[in-house]
Design a protein that fits this description.
Strand content: 15-25%
Helix content: 25-40%
Distance between the termini: 27 Å
CATH architecture: 3-Layer(bba) Sandwich
Protein name: 4-aminobenzoate hydroxylase
Number of strands: 19
Largest sheet: 8 strands, mixed
Structural class: alpha/beta
Strand order of the largest sheet: 5-4-13-14-15-12-17-16
Pfam family, one: FAD_binding_3
CATH topology: FAD/NAD(P)-binding domain
GO molecular function: FAD binding; oxidoreductase activity
InterPro entries: FAD-bd, FAD/NAD-bd_sf, FAD_monoxygenase
Number of helices: 13
Keywords: FAD, Flavoprotein, Membrane, Oxidoreductase, Transmembrane, Transmembrane helix
Bound molecules: flavin-adenine dinucleotide, 2-acetamido-2-deoxy-beta-D-glucopyranose
């Protein structure tokens, strides 16, 4: 099969979602229809941050992408559907914290170090000379390629312009370039009524920052022998306008710490300054003055904390038009309170790879057909992403004890146990999506594709 007969797919952004999409397309591409080019702005591939949660729903998808053998050894426990603690919730903003409720989910959370996750994905790209199990699609990675513009005529290829690099072309363009996407504003500018989309160009700050860091097990054992997290799958310490989660990664050798601080008066404002900065331990510690010693001990062990401004996108209602598709954070960056951002992006990859490789999708894609396919992608993905993004906001308010049920309680006030438990139970319900099955979305998408496909091909 010569390369010029293949559908040329350009993926902009080699984050978790862009890489996963390339793997998905290759895995499903039984007829060897695709040639994939991945363009990444940075000169090397690296994943910042520490831990990430993968959920049973996402695991089902990753298995279908052929990643089971590579990823399984990286998780904190073998994937199964046993009821497991996702987070043990404790009241934390007082000297003697106490247990509130264990949030349980079938299969729990599969916790993995981001660097391990990315390494596993890179192993599965169908690049010449790598260990990819299948080589269905052709694939190339182009580092130091920052997309700055694209253009197309009706039937012809899409031309891609890069900063300081020669232009290239493709048939299908995927924006997987994250929350600060350059592709998203260009995509919005090319929609019929671009002014309507002004509020989707720039991210919005949530009034929330996250302090993040890794703690070595050894250090914690010295500072606080027998600390609860040393023998626990994950803990969440809640308090007024603050909460902290911690969980072991890398076979328990490290504890991943994320500590949230919320200023409600700054909700939906614009963050000024760098998104991520190194901060002193003293600054981090000060935010948690008066908290449970279990939290303070952990903070004392974070050698180099970083502070992240937590931003998200307004709920965009179109991810695809014609030959251009947004996925992952570039389409629907959401707050981290459900540990769901990458998972929802992986679902985008799953649905789009299924549609593009479906037996009814022809090798030569007419304008009508690709428009139809894009509308199916929108129909399936937009409502799902918006509902998840809304849920992350609600969950944040519950974790920070700022949800409507906690109205009237000021910092330092005692909150009745039944309200704390009610809040934790709502969070638990909000995590029930993790055990649903994304195969149903795939079937629905394929059914819609088939239903309109014949007409669209005319
Ligand atoms: C504190 C925190 C905790 C989280 N925890 C979880 C969790 O437990 N589970 C979960 O599922 N999600 C979690 N998330 C969300 C998750 O990290 C993101 O949703 C996910 O990493 C987004 O992946 P992406 O590939 O869409 O974007 P990114 O990872 O941002 O990748 C985008 C890539 O595009 C490149 N790029 C940008 N512009 C251009 C350009 N113009 N040209 C070429 N390349 C470009 C960038 O360099 C980058 O490599 C968390 C987020 C935070 C902040
Ligand atoms: C980007 O491409 C579009 C479409 O061809 C063109 O109108 C626009 O001027 C270009 N923008 C830049 C900054 O080059
Ligand atoms: C999360 O909780 C909020 C508040 O109870 C609710 O409105 C929302 O539908 C829930 N989301 C999910 C996914 O369960
Ligand atoms: C999801 O559905 C698929 C397809 O029917 C099935 O193979 C898989 O076992 C299901 N997964 C779960 C967790 O129920």
């Amino acid at each position: 099969m010569s390369q010029d007969r293949r559908v040329r797919v350009a993926i902009v952004g080699a984050g978790i979602v862009g890489l996963t999409f390339a793997i998905a397309l290759n895995e499903f591409d039984r007829d060897h229809k695709f040639a994939i080019d991945i363009y990444e702005a940075t000169p090397e591939l690296s994943e910042i941050g520490a831990g990430i949660n993968v959920w049973p729903r996402t695991w089902e998808i990753l298995k279908q992408f052929g990643l089971e053998d590579t990823l399984t050894p990286c998780f904190d426990h073998a994937p199964d559907l046993e009821p497991r603690i996702i987070f043990g919730v404790r009241k934390g903003d007082q000297k003697d914290g106490f247990k509130v409720h264990d949030i349980i989910g079938n299969g729990g959370a599969l916790r993995i170090h981001r660097a391990d996750f990315q390494r596993s994905l890179l192993k599965h790209l169908p690049l010449p000379g790598t260990a990819a199990t299948k080589m269905n699609s052709l694939c190339a990675v182009h580092l130091s390629h920052r997309l700055i513009n694209y253009s197309y005529t009706n039937a012809g290829p899409i031309t891609l312009n890069f900063e300081g690099k020669p232009s290239t072309t493709c048939d299908i363009l995927i924006g997987a370039d994250g929350i600060k996407s350059s592709l998203r504003p260009m995509f919005l500018n090319r929609l019929p009524n671009p002014q309507r989309y002004d509020k989707f160009r720039e991210p919005v700050w949530s009034g929330t920052v996250a302090y993040r860091g890794l703690v070595s097990r050894e250090d914690l054992e010295k500072v606080y022998p027998g600390h609860r997290i040393l023998d626990h799958p994950g803990l969440m310490y809640t308090g007024k306008s603050r909460y902290t989660v911690m969980y072991p990664v890398s076979g328990g050798n490290f504890i991943n710490v994320v500590a949230i601080v919320h200023d409600t008066s700054k909700d939906t404002t614009v963050w000024k300054g760098p998104w991520k900065t190194d901060v002193t331990q003293a600054e981090f510690f000060e935010q948690y003055t008066g908290w449970d010693e279990e939290v303070q001990a952990l903070i004392r062990c974070v050698k180099q904390p970083t502070k992240w401004a937590l931003q998200s996108l307004n709920h965009l209602d179109v991810f695809a038009k014609g030959r251009v598709f947004l996925m992952g954070d570039s389409a629907h960056a959401m707050l981290p309170h459900l540990g769901a951002g990458a998972s929802v992006g992986i679902e985008d990859a799953y649905i789009l790879a299924s549609l593009l490789t479906h037996h009814s999708t022809p090798r030569v894609l007419s304008t009508h057909y690709i428009n139809h396919l894009a509308s199916v992608y929108n129909t399936i993905r937009v409502p799902r992403a918006i509902s998840m993004a809304k849920s992350t906001i609600d969950t944040g308010y519950l974790c920070n004890l700022e949800a409507p049920i906690y109205e009237g309680y000021k910092p330092g006030d005692e909150i009745p146990m039944d309200l704390l438990v009610e809040g934790a139970r709502t969070i638990e319900r909000n995590w029930s999506w993790t055990t649903t099955n994304a195969s149903e979305d795939r079937w629905r998408a394929e059914e819609l594709l088939g239903r309109g496909g014949e007409m669209a091909m005319l």
